[in-house]
Task: structure prediction
Amino acid sequence: MNLVFLGPPGAGKGTIAAIAKEKLGVPHISTGDLFRAAIKNETELGKQVKSILASGELVPDSVTVEMVRERFLDKDTKDGFILDGFPRTISQADSLADMKQIDHVVNFLLDREEIVKRLSGRRMCKSTGKIYHVLYNPPKVEGIDDETGEPLIQRDDDKEDAILNRLEVYDRQTAPLISYYKEKGMLRDIDAKGSPEAVLAQMLAAIGA
Ligand code: ADP
Ligand code: AMP
Result:
């Protein structure tokens, strides 16, 4: 099953994708994670996008589409995938349509106040990418990853200024994808406010799994 998770930053797409990938047996492809890995490994791509990610702006479409095109060459995407954070512009959605047939676009609905709470409390393990929240999903020991024992970090783009910019970027550039996919009959709205288990159950029902 080829899935796209659409929604504002902080809506819980990555959290649900991390659980759903086991259940559906498909890889979780997060363009944000791919960019962060490139930055961590100091690749050419990483150097190119580092300041863009810190500011909350979008990486140019051509660079992003090329990265996804390369990811699709990996065999694990043959029988399905969950795309998280891609596409984020109409142009990216058009490019995706040329590369793959998408079965469902799951639209995560969450109010602004809750989005800001989720983003400002988000913490992650830099080496594994595991996501926590200081209140909603805390680690066993404060500030420490449960598996690796490494200190958790706050993403630069989860600091206040960048959060506001990212929400503006979402409204301007990504929200138009809602009507784009609705018109194509591909959009499946879900209420992202409940517990991860409740959101997962809704998502599975929405895609008929
Ligand atoms: P996205 O991938 O959409 O940007 P994340 O999955 O990283 O969002 O979630 C943002 C933050 O909200 C994280 O700190 C995560 O732990 C927390 N979170 C995700 N889903 C839920 C939920 N259903 N209830 C409470 N907190 C959640
Ligand atoms: P995310 O982890 O999905 O919140 O993405 C983090 C950041 O990576 C975004 O704020 C953008 O700077 C960049 N990014 C991720 N996905 C895309 C995309 N599809 N198009 C452009 N930039 C992206």
Observations:
- The pocket of adenosine-5'-diphosphate (ligand 1) is lined by residues 7, 9-15, 118, 121-122, 131-133, 136-137, 195-196, 199 (CB under 6 Å).
- The longest helix spans residues 160-174.
